[in-house]
Amino acid sequence: RMAEDFQKMRDELQESFDSGVTLPYEYRMGQLKKCAAMIKAMEQEYCDAVKTDLGKHPAETNSTDLKFTESELGYAMKHLKGWMADQFVKTDLVNKLDHAYQHKEPKGVVLVMGTWNYPLMCVVVPLIGAICAGDCGVLKLSEVSPTTSSVMKKYFDLYLDPLCYRTVEGSVPESTALLKLRWDHIFFTGSVSIGRVVARAAAEHLTPVTLELGGKCPVIVDETTNVETAAKRIAWGKCVNAGQTCIAPDYVLCHKKHYTAFIEHYRAHVKDMYGADPEKSEDYARIVSDRHFSRLSELLAMGTVEVGGQTNPETRFISPTLITKPDLASSLMTDEIFGPILPVLQYDDLNAVIKDLRSKEKPLVCYVFSNNGKHIDLIKKRVSCGTMDVNDCLMHMMVPTLPFGGVGNSGMGAYHGKASFDQFSHTKSVLHRPIGLESVTSLRYPPYDAEWKQNLMYSLTYYKPSAPSNSITKYAVSSTVALGAFAYAFAWPGSSGQ
After folding, report:
1. 3-state DSSP call for residue 99?
2. Can you give the pTM of this predicted structure?
3. Which pLDDT tens digit goes with each residue over 350-396?
4. How do beta strands 251-255 and 209-212 pair?
5. CA angle at 411 for the pair 405 and 416, rounded to the nearest 5°
6. If you write DSSP's letter for every residue of 286-329 in order, what string do you get?
7. pLDDT digit string, tens, across residues 324-359
């Protein structure tokens, strides 16, 4: 019955899409405005729900989830008309009289599969891209944060156009049934293991996917940085949402010069932010489920606890923890941690660090704390990652002109700002030629009896494998060739010259 219901929902959305209702600018802008009104209306109830599911302070929910999503909305509303406009491109000499441009068209009916750690952001930001592109879609909410998902569904169903956007709650059976259907794009945020399941399902229909996954995001702290500031920013980036963030620092590679100082500064900054007993702090979140709490608790024995290490299974509390001498073969160092536990290792050779990072899966983010431009440039060029942050953590997310996404094992595709619009659009290339001036194209037709005709055509049409040349000289030569071609075409025996 579930499969039949989902297929019926999919067919209804296809019917709405085929009607063209989502194509006008006015419709897309109207839905964005409804999203903005929805976020305002649900703010208090949403913060309360996140507090129930994650123990998160409303101020943190506001800044890292609600306000971030509102900012994305504002940016999209400001730029939507320009994104929708055709983008004209340069042509070669043969096509000088043609119009060549890229036209953005909606992909169709899409599936957005959200996650639980930043529930609103991970659903609505992709939805913004789908709305801007003119798609219809289904929003699958996470069952791991049930209170929050219930609030989201209530407001989504109240504010979004039900003819074009539907919301689904549920767990594995619902997700499995949805993935069996044919979609025009699937956007998934979650773990690498489930990302593989989504990719396999999409492959059955050759459906394009955006996979926002994760991995182990390294932090390099070199000998030239201000280690106190670095420790503070890393502690904040790690402890936001109790470390349950795909871009949270996963482990630190600290130069031996700063190793001891880093540990002490980290300890001090955790105390400054959350007090001597973080369990009593209203500002510190909790682990989302008993399963995740059990997994994280086991990691505490895989090294030497230098900071924190306290737990409370009744409230799913794990204190901000720093671990030294981690077992490199353990899951602490092989799997994404996704919690408030931070291993730290020391190094003395940056090239050895880079070599080691290159041997591992490509991370979603690589953080670098350094005042040495050569070190920064070397890491930028030699360490492949989705994003690179220099001297801060998480803050690249606040720049809408920086696409966010992984590479390799950390994901594929990128979004935020215009990149979200592009992910849910198909770029259609259009060449519009005048029907007249047929004599100009006569060079291309058989019979191929005159070699000079073909050589002239090639010189006008094809780019040559050569180094950049002087633009003035190139323009003079190409103009001369073009004039000769037109003169030849109009003088062609039997040609009408039209």
Report:
1. strand
2. 0.92
3. 999 999 999 999 999 999 999 999 999 999 999 999 999 999 999 99
4. unpaired
5. 20
6. --S-HHHHHHHHHHTTSSEEEE---EETTTTEE--EEEES--TT
7. 999 999 999 999 999 999 999 999 999 999 999 999
| Rounded-to-integer distance, Cα 144 and Cα 151, Å | 14
**Euclidean distance between CA atoms 193 and 212, whole angstroms:** 12
H/E segment holding residue 37: helix 25-54
**CA distances to 113, 384, 415 from 189, in Å:** 6, 21, 12
Location of structure tokens 């999919």: 10
Catalytic center residues: 212, 246
- Determine the 3-state secondary structure of 340 from DSSP: coil
- Matching residue, tokens 């062609």: 492
Find the length of the chain.
498
Give the angle 159-165-167 at the CA atoms, nearest 5°. Answer: 85
**Which two structure tokens, joined as six digits, stand for 162?**
């039900």
In this structure, which amino acid lies at residue 369? Answer: F
For residue 442, the surrounding DSSP H or E stretch is none
Q: Which residues of the chain have pLDDT under 70?
A: 460-463, 466-498
User: How many other CB atoms sit within 10 Å of the CB of residue 117?
Assistant: 28
The structure tokens listed for 76 are 């999209």
Rg of the chain, C-alpha, whole Å: 28
Please count the other Cβ atoms lying within 10 Å of the Cβ belonging to residue 309: 17
| Calpha distance 331→299 (Å, rounded) | 7
Query: What is the separation, in whole angstroms, between the first and last Cα of the chain?
Result: 64
What span, in angstroms and rounded, lies between the C-alpha atoms of 126 and 135? 11
Q: Which residues of 210-236 are buried (b: 16+ CB within 10 A; e: fewer)?
A: bbbbbbbbbbbbbbbbebbebbbbbbb
